[in-house]
Amino acid sequence: MKKNEDDNYNNPIDVDQIDLDRLKLATSDSPGTLTFGSNRGGVAFTPNKEGAIKSRAYSAMTGQLDMQLANIVEQMRVLAKQVEELKERKRVSELIYTAAMSFEPLTGKSYFLYEVVQDESITARLSMLSPKEWGEDKMKDQRFLAEVMLLADHTWKILASDNKFLESLR
User: Fold this and answer.
1) How far apart (Å, rounded) are the C-alpha atoms in residues 104 and 88?
2) Which run of H or E residues covers position 75?
3) Counted domains in the chain
């Protein structure tokens, strides 16, 4: 450049606007202590997106907890159903153990529970005979309630029944 051109040259960097104190913070005698890479070979540190990281973690956490809670609720439903079944078995067992029976029932075998009318009183009776085996004449004095099975724990399970009988147990 010639001298005339140097006088007309307008430098786009205004030296008076440079904050030298801030630049002092960006320099160091020991570059290893800087919080950013100080040369081309230095590790590039990028700021993390803390909000995004927390949001993903929170989403994953709530998803997992919701899934675990749903599993526990389902287990509670299963347990509640088992409780109702046990209550029904207890009521049936109490009724059968107060019923008349003239034999010793064996576990795993099915028997038949009847409601018998005798002398204006109604009693329950456990029998080895099905309603078909009794015949129509004998069935006039009794009403079939349920086909039941003695379980290993000596409670009784209903295999088949009159719907009215099931409703009366509940």
Assistant:
1) 22
2) helix 50-98
3) 1
Residue 19 lies in a domain: no
Phi/psi at 29 (5° precision): -75, -25
Residue 46 lies in a domain: no
The predicted pLDDT at position 22 comes to 75
Under-70 pLDDT residues of the chain: 1-8, 24-26, 31-47, 163, 165-170
In DSSP notation, 85-145 reads HHHHHHHHHHHHHHSB-SS---TT-EEEEEEEEETTEEEEEEESS-HHHH-HHHHTTEEEE
Strand partners, 148: 111, 158
Q: CA-CA distance, 155 to 94, in Å (whole number)?
A: 9
Closest to 87 measured CA to CA, from 170, 3, 2: 170
Domain extent for 98? 81-169
- Write down the pLDDT at residue 71: 95
Residue 9 forms part of a structural domain: no
pTM for the model stands at 0.56
